[in-house]
Amino acid sequence: MQSENEVSSCLLLNFLLNCFVRSPSWQHWLSLPLSFLLLLALGANTTLLITIRLEASLHEPMYYLLSLLSLLDTVICLTVIPKVLAIFWFDLRSISFFACFLQMYIMNCIFAMESCTFMVMAYDRYVAICHPLMYPSIVTNQFIVKAAIFILARSVFLTLPIPILSGRLHYCGRNVIENCICANMSVSRLSCSDITINRLYQFTAGWTLLGSDLILIFLSYTFILRAVLRLKAQGAVAKALSTCGSHFILILFFSTVLLVFVFTLMVEKKLSSDMPVLLNILHHVIPPALNPIVYGVRTQEIKQGIQRLLKKEW
């Protein structure tokens, strides 16, 4: 005879995403800017990918890394925002167990890959400024291939336990997720099992992946700043810093929104419970929408490449 938990678990075939129940008016005004940001992110990243693919002058390691970042931004947008808009517009709150855990895995994996990509980009800038003569021999196409394999392998294997640990739990009756997305802890809290291991692994994996990347990025820019301040040629400092400016802005987008989200979770008892949900959604669409624009505006080679493509089309 099956236990009561096992019977109840078998009856649950899906979850319900219950977002902004305390602030339902948010759904109406938020759907329009979300739609705009989604179209902007998809359009800008697609344009950037096509430009780098077709322009021979952009077939360099730095732009390959930027292509990888654009691809990751596109995937994370398509993983999260269409479902959120479906909830806002058509009240399609139901999501299957498989789809929920798949979304959970993709989100965690992509964030880990983006963080590691920023770290590799910081190393690229460090070599370019601190060891310019050695740059062509260090940062090669072969280096980029190895870096991409490392980014993929590290993220895939270290984030895989997150949905596995959540999937092994018993869900006995409650299936309403107080979120717009299948965030790990939002789902795990519905379980009647002990989720201590889930919390511990989420914390450990997060600080191991994102924390180590941020430390290495900080060290890279510390060495870069020290090297730049030693430059005595007129205009050399401004030129050196301009090559790092776009990358540094992208890191600020990624880390600032993430840190605000973490801080909001820490003080959620003093704020509306919908605030962390809102920040979580925005973190999946604002950086992807702004990243390619920042590089497109600040990088002369990309601007010229886009202009040449547009002239060919016309």
In terms of structural class, how would the helical and strand content be classed?
mainly alpha
Q: What share of residues are in beta strands?
A: under 5%
The assembly state of the depicted protein chains is single chain
**Integer-rounded radius of gyration:** 22 Å
* H/E element sequence: HEHHEHHHHEHHHHHH
First-to-last CA distance: 72 Å
Give the helices and strands, then pairings.
Layout: H1 4-11, E1 14-17, H2 25-54, H3 61-90, E2 94-96, H4 97-130, H5 135-138, H6 141-159, H7 161-167, E3 176-177, H8 184-188, H9 196-229, H10 236-266, H11 274-283, H12 286-298, H13 300-313
Parallel strand pairs: 1-3
Antiparallel strand pairs: 1-2
Helix pairs in contact: 2-3, 2-12, 2-13, 3-4, 3-6, 3-12, 4-6, 4-7, 4-9, 4-10, 7-9, 10-11, 10-12
Defining traits:
Rhopdopsin 7-helix transmembrane proteins, disordered N terminus, 314 residues, mainly alpha
Task: Write a structural description.
By secondary structure, the chain is mainly alpha-helical. The chain has one domain: Rhopdopsin 7-helix transmembrane proteins (Up-down Bundle), CATH 1.20.1070. It is 76% helix and 3% strand. The N terminus is likely disordered.
